Amino acid sequence: MRIGVLTGGGDCPGLNAVIRAVVRKGISTYGHEFVGFRDGWRGPLEGVTRELGIAQVRGILPRGGTILGSSRTNPFKIDGGVEKIKSNLADLGIDALVAIGGEDTLGVAAKLTDLGVNVVGVPKTIDNDLGATDYTFGFDTAVNIAMEAIDRLHTTAESHHRTLVVEVMGRHAGWIALHAGLAGGANVILLPERQFDVDQVAGYVEKRFQTQYSPIVVVAEGAQPLDGQMVLHNQELDAFGHVRLGGIGQWLAEQLEEKTGKEARTVVLGHIQRGGTPTAFDRVLATRFGLHAIDAVHEGDFGKMVALQGVDIIRVPLVEATRELKTVPVERYTEAEVFFGS
Amino acid sequence: MRIGVLTGGGDCPGLNAVIRAVVRKGISTYGHEFVGFRDGWRGPLEGVTRELGIAQVRGILPRGGTILGSSRTNPFKIDGGVEKIKSNLADLGIDALVAIGGEDTLGVAAKLTDLGVNVVGVPKTIDNDLGATDYTFGFDTAVNIAMEAIDRLHTTAESHHRTLVVEVMGRHAGWIALHAGLAGGANVILLPERQFDVDQVAGYVEKRFQTQYSPIVVVAEGAQPLDGQMVLHNQELDAFGHVRLGGIGQWLAEQLEEKTGKEARTVVLGHIQRGGTPTAFDRVLATRFGLHAIDAVHEGDFGKMVALQGVDIIRVPLVEATRELKTVPVERYTEAEVFFGS
Amino acid sequence: MRIGVLTGGGDCPGLNAVIRAVVRKGISTYGHEFVGFRDGWRGPLEGVTRELGIAQVRGILPRGGTILGSSRTNPFKIDGGVEKIKSNLADLGIDALVAIGGEDTLGVAAKLTDLGVNVVGVPKTIDNDLGATDYTFGFDTAVNIAMEAIDRLHTTAESHHRTLVVEVMGRHAGWIALHAGLAGGANVILLPERQFDVDQVAGYVEKRFQTQYSPIVVVAEGAQPLDGQMVLHNQELDAFGHVRLGGIGQWLAEQLEEKTGKEARTVVLGHIQRGGTPTAFDRVLATRFGLHAIDAVHEGDFGKMVALQGVDIIRVPLVEATRELKTVPVERYTEAEVFFGS
Amino acid sequence: MRIGVLTGGGDCPGLNAVIRAVVRKGISTYGHEFVGFRDGWRGPLEGVTRELGIAQVRGILPRGGTILGSSRTNPFKIDGGVEKIKSNLADLGIDALVAIGGEDTLGVAAKLTDLGVNVVGVPKTIDNDLGATDYTFGFDTAVNIAMEAIDRLHTTAESHHRTLVVEVMGRHAGWIALHAGLAGGANVILLPERQFDVDQVAGYVEKRFQTQYSPIVVVAEGAQPLDGQMVLHNQELDAFGHVRLGGIGQWLAEQLEEKTGKEARTVVLGHIQRGGTPTAFDRVLATRFGLHAIDAVHEGDFGKMVALQGVDIIRVPLVEATRELKTVPVERYTEAEVFFGS
């Protein structure tokens, strides 16, 4: 068989580990041939490929990013996109695709399956918000990076009797904030899943200062205050009603400084959460995903996505995988609230 | 309620996170009081305690080890041990115990339960070999430390065209070797679960040298060669038939050097695998174990152990928890063999 | 002797290592007694102290921040400040002070020396911009944190064919940017010492994209474009002419995106550069500074600051120490320019 | 000019950073051409080369080891070795060599200079024991790795009330032990420069146990007890009088366990100290060494070695560089003794 591989969407530590496992097992166990498509769906759409054999995957296991490049190209939003993909795959003699990506990339994969393209999906989202798998790779790395930053911030916060607000990734799901906050001993954790009351947060912060320690507030970039609380401060909104200065972390730090009378500072972790070498958890998970994906390809079990369930790698239909966003359930948040404000 | 807490067996990153979660939730949510017992079962046996309140658990989340100390004391191997424990618990007004430990510590807990002591167990084994839980805390930290060492060793091996043998923990179960080897891109992984053929290992090593990369061999301390292979080298055994020089890693490196004609060196990771700050995965797991253990205590659900199943914390009977050693199943080893020797 | 210790200004990894060394050697070698002053010069000004003995300095060597707290209080800017300090020191029976801090803290120390207070200074600036010492502690830690962030960002930049602008500390001196940029393999490094031409930077960025790698631009927070370049974009300035959105990094990324047509993103490292456990270099330097500072106190050699010269710790007059800012000399910048734009 | 580059002796983090800087500046500033010689002096001796241009040095800055390989080949110990080198250099059209290595490699370089070969040396020794430079690259990385291991071992030592003996590199000079021990808060540090009294060490260990903390003993692999102390235990020596079990660390742990009655364990850090990504200090130092070495080549200033003096890179005659081993001076050891035994 001749198999194409592509990576789509935001990059994530572990992508290269998947590619390596797919190629290594495909060649050594099954005798497959591989073609690397560049930059997600742009690769098959425009027929842009790169060589992908044993030599190309050597040494990439510990490397972040993706040797194939990535993009957010969606062939279904481009006139004739699907036809181009099908003809390019035919021209290149591709029998099947391994598509590694998140909701968007796998959504395309699911639709292409219906149109007769042989695809196996590998789930990728640093936010851990895909419903059909216990975990996605990249998430554990992001959480560890955020936790290490929080570890560092505790001492500087305490030396200056300041509040430190740490803004982490998570537009729609708060998994990184929840886990990094729990692991880092945050004083408050704020998620997109539940609007927060800025006065309650200020109360937690004040309670923490009474212990002679200083508070660390972990806030997901998508977290929002209660309706109305941000309107009260509309001088900080731009013409479109967006927060003007630096995002929710910055806004919150200013609020907390004003309400508690204690200095507050913000750190926005940003892209360092998605770069760099993966943790062991992510390397093992990504490797196992890759090994099982190529098994599925070999068996002709297309239209599926590999997924983690407990300690097992299973297969689920691609359509199921992208059906709903996995957000933080209320009981996980309640669990964490024990540590708030003290 | 007045609750005793103890940690037994080898220390493990995450023990302090459990203690902190138990105490924080016990006090803030349930109004419990706590007594810390020192050094595992020696604490209740000899009535040696230390204060354990909110102040004592501040700042310990990121710290390895256990603030309570540990030991391998087994009251059932001491005359009148159980009676002493029961009378000490009565004298100290202890209503229930949270026992954090591995097979031995939890085995004692299970037996004490039968004798009317109120115990809830929290599983701890750096080797990840307890059957009733998907993972134990400390394991992920150990695997990451071993992986980082392997990452470092790749470049020195290649610069000198040497084989590097890395001996990791695991007397009876090879989970650390399997995961660290997979994550570190090892050339061969050797586990206690399956005797290895030293000639086959030498073959893998030679095959790797043909790629112009150098081989890393990850060997669990409890791995053994095929029957007879070590006897051939009995000058290296002491009077009891034990390997004389430094363990299986050292023995294997000498064999590989002889068989392949290429220099080989050994690194024994030893105690650095169990020390130091826990990873995010272990801090979150340990914290959740602690929170759920104190819930079980509060509900009077004794004789149980908390356990991880998928993403959920569940409770299982203590006796079940210690029934059998969870070794690496053959399919997980086969999965990894794809990467051997190339 | 009875000796007061204080830490002033922004916190820095290594402060606790200094405190520990001062106290350990002072007590065990010389039999001194110690008093900890809280929060920099606020401590002696308001007579706020904390116990400072062997027990208080145990375990603090690897901890960032300062157990004494810090502030920017300047007694010379407060009516009667100096008199209050002198009378508090007399009331507390303090014979001498060890003042650990940067330009401001040591400037106060120098003036107090002239007024008859016995002070020995220990230099501290994360920016490494004190003229009288080869290095200050905290700098090496900050550079390593920034370098690790840059290491992580390379792969994410390349996966998305983006420019990544990393803003690091350094308002007046670009040492952190220079060293982190050199160590991290930055494509361009921009310092406060030299205004940059945004078109030349865009040229470097474009040249880098031709190599199929992606550019990392390291910019010190105090770096500025050539006169006039920012005025052209005055919609991004606030009423005071300050950059409105997020600082120079954000401004630069927007410029580069516009000029090169390639996406650009910014990461502002902020407070994580000054928090957390110190590197070995900083722990050794801080420890040696502490040991030599207490020697100076013991010898009655006041009005001096300890400093690093080559591998030796020497003493220099406090006034000299704070005379001028040590900026990056032009030959060090030229040295680094070899790597720009390719 | 056409310039050969080689790396000899044990590998060291930073070698690749030197190679990259030499090649980048040589090509972009001076228009030189480069030839990579493989495996130290074996390369020019046997005429084994590899391509060395801009493409080959991309991405190697953060990588440990050396892309050129290394060996301990000494052409002066091989019949006709020097003649072969000279004729190979002539055949390959090599005008000058950059030799990166330690005492042996640079010793060869010095002798070849006398024989008319154009060589510039770059000092490399992980042990930091070359007299003519304040620091060598690789040392800072090794010290940080050892310190992180010690940090980890503190908590496990304390949990089990054990002594932990950490054996670090250093056969003839104790710099790694001194700096890692100081940075890691060791209880005792033992160097090759001074024989230790095992009873005094046991005394320090006992004193430490009285503090309720546990002792960490850092011992350089070349440290030795007082004459006679090891003979008393000759059952532990092999036929050649060498320590039979695992080196000085293992011997010392057994002695301490016997003398103090407290369990003791050993960790031998071994090769992980020399592998892996360099610290910022080492990357900057190695890069600057490389930049200045190619300047020297370009200026025809042969027979010199680059060296660090304070913050400046200087040039010293190669013969001077290798004249004497830089051991730890007594005052640096005395400085550290303040922390022993408490």
UniProtKB/TrEMBL annotation, chains A, B, C, D:
Main localization (coarse): cytoplasm
Tell me what controls its activity: Non-allosteric.
Q: Which UniProt keywords apply?
A: Cytoplasm, Glycolysis, Kinase, Magnesium, Metal-binding, Transferase
Q: Where is the Phosphofructokinase domain?
A: 2-297
For binding Mg(2+), which residues are annotated in this chain's numbering?
E103
| Broad class of enzyme this protein falls into | transferase
PROSITE patterns assigned: PHOSPHOFRUCTOKINASE (PS00433)
Q: Name its pathway.
A: Carbohydrate degradation; glycolysis; D-glyceraldehyde 3-phosphate and glycerone phosphate from D-glucose: step 3/4
The reaction(s) annotated as catalysed by this protein in its Swiss-Prot or TrEMBL entry are: beta-D-fructose 6-phosphate + diphosphate = beta-D-fructose 1,6-bisphosphate + phosphate + H(+)
The residues the record assigns to binding diphosphate are G10
Q: Which residues form the active site?
A: D127 (proton acceptor)
Q: Where is this site: Important for catalytic activity?
A: K124
The keyword DNA repair belongs to this UniProt entry's keyword annotation: no
Functionally, this protein is described as follows: Catalyzes the phosphorylation of D-fructose 6-phosphate, the first committing step of glycolysis. Uses inorganic phosphate (PPi) as phosphoryl donor instead of ATP like common ATP-dependent phosphofructokinases (ATP-PFKs), which renders the reaction reversible, and can thus function both in glycolysis and gluconeogenesis. Consistently, PPi-PFK can replace the enzymes of both the forward (ATP-PFK) and reverse (fructose-bisphosphatase (FBPase)) reactions.
Q: What is this protein called?
A: Pyrophosphate--fructose 6-phosphate 1-phosphotransferase
Q: Which organism is it from?
A: Dactylosporangium roseum
Q: Which gene encodes it?
A: pfp
